[in-house]
Structure formats: C-alpha cells, structure tokens
C-alpha cells in the first residue's frame, strides 16, 4: 500500500511538468471565441511579455471574485508590466451561453475564450477552478495556483513583477 501511495505521489508531482508533451510548454487545444469562431491555444502570445491564464466558470463564485479583483488594477498591471490576461471558461455547451452575459455585466477587458469540451483544461491538468497560471515570454508555464482567497491577486502581481526582473517566483 505504501508503495502504491508513493508511486501515486511521484506521478502526481511530475504530471505538472509534462504538460502537453513539451517540458512546461503551453499545450495546443482548440477553444471558442465569444463570437463563436475558433482559436488554438498555441497561438497565445504577448510579444515576449508574461501571460496570465485563468480558468474559471460562470457558476464559480471564487473565480468571478478573482477576475473582478484583478480587473480593478488590470490597466495598471498592463501599463507597468505588459502582462496579458487570458480567461478560459470551462462552461460546457449547456452553460456557455452565460459566459458572454457575465463578461458584459462584469466589464472584463481580458481575452476570454470558452473550453466547452474541456480539452485545454485537461491538457493543463486543471482539476478545480479557479486555477491560474503564469506563462513567461517563451510560452513556458512558470507558476500555478489553485483556488482564490482575498489578496491572491496581489501575490499574482508580485510574481509577474518578479518574473520580469528575473527573480524567483513565490508559490
């Protein structure tokens, strides 16, 4: 039994490292834009600057709270660091129609895509939302955080600034 548990823990610890086949690289998955057209996650870029990817859902109150908290300071974040936030809704076909309504009501100025089949969610090893990642300028996943508590957006931003300065990120 101990061997089985140890084996599971070792596998789980390495599962994050091997996302999408390439070491820490952003995996490829087809997502839906709010206008219904398609986009592939392998086209995500930000001219060598960091990207935040936040997985959320219309039914997830902590997700909306996190995205609202980020929205309060997002224009300053962009101005200071050039960071881009991409919000990925994991709503399925039954609830994805609520995404556009929520985005309009909230006034979020992020790039927002829908992962109806949850292919990108699975490729990124997301089990629960909210789940937030920082992607460096080379398209590598360098930081990950699951859940949301008040103030987590400050930690996220401090890590963005640390990444730009070449400093170690805090988990």
Please provide a written account of the structure.
By secondary structure, the protein is an alpha/beta fold. The chain has one domain (2-165): Glutaredoxin (3-Layer(aba) Sandwich). The protein is built from five helices and seven strands. The chain has helices at residues 2-15, 61-81, 97-106, 119-123, 152-165; strands spanning 30-33, 38-40, 51-56, 84-89, 111-114, 131-135, 141-146. Helix 2 runs parallel beside helix 5. The protein starts with a helix and ends in a 6-residue tail after the last helix.
Determine the N-to-C terminus distance: 31 Å
| Beta-strand proportion | 15-25%
Assign the structural class, choosing from mainly alpha, mainly beta, alpha/beta, alpha+beta, or little secondary structure: alpha/beta
CATH-defined superfamily? Glutaredoxin
Order of helices and strands: HEEEHEHEHEEH
Summarize the structure.
With 171 residues, the chain is α/β, with parallel strands linked by helices.
Strand and helix layout:
Layout: H1 2-15, E1 30-33, E2 38-40, E3 51-56, H2 61-81, E4 84-89, H3 97-106, E5 111-114, H4 119-123, E6 131-135, E7 141-146, H5 152-165
Parallel strand pairs: 3-4, 4-5
Antiparallel strand pairs: 1-2, 1-5, 3-6, 6-7
Spell out the key features of this protein.
single chain; 171 residues; alpha/beta; Glutaredoxin; seven-stranded mixed sheet; 5 helices; 20% strand
